[in-house]
Amino acid sequence: MIKVIGVQFNSSLKTYDFKPGRNKIEVNNYVVVETVQGIEIGRVIYIDKEVSAKEVEEPYKEVIRIADDKDLNRWKKMREEGYQFLPLFREKVKELKLEMKPITVELSFEGDRAIFYFAAENRVDFRELIKVLSRSIKKQVIMRQIGPRDEAKMLGGYGICGQPVCCVRFLTQAESISMDMAREQYETNVNANKVTGLCGRLMCCLTFEEIDKKKGKKK
User: Fold this and answer.
1) Three-state helix/strand/coil letters over 125-140
2) Domains observed in the chain
3) What order of strands is seen across the sheet that includes strand 65-66?
4) What global pTM score does this model have?
5) Percent of the chain with pLDDT over 90
6) Structural contact between residues 39 and 108, judged by C-beta atoms closer than 8 angstroms
């Protein structure tokens, strides 16, 4: 068996597994890792997960190091600098009449690449957009499409409960949620405003209430 840790990045609810190496890692530590997109920083969601070596198709990459204050300050700086390109992003999308919604822009940890996050209902041909943005900012441009729940996680906000949205606080994956859950819990006509989150999708907390209800029935 191989022991791995789960790392979640700022742009997604999905959690990725890495080998801890010689690092003594705890939950909620921030770590520096190498991904297909280059060097990134992510938050540790779980530790000591055991995976069968037979199930591993590709070797897990090891954590480079636990992020220190210097790493975290640079990470914050790159995100702030990248955000300055958002007005340009919006302007060029409008000029090219592309059916996409610009969300935000971040610079990579090393500062050589700019990741442009967007939402779209359908597939978008953004090849010309990449050329225009690359010429303007003099950096490698990466376009990354994200879903409504990932968008809510990136931008943050508060739910109708008054608490920060669940995807920011603790969710590690997008839950499967149905209107049946809402109907069972409200037991009357469902008010769409009461069960819709900031992302425009059904609230993730409906899943937790469904689980609690099932546990109550078993008792």
Assistant:
1) CCHHHHHHHHHHHCCE
2) 2-67 (no CATH), 79-146 (3.30.300), 162-218 (no CATH)
3) 15-18, 2-8, 38-51, 30-35, 65-66
4) 0.73
5) 51
6) yes
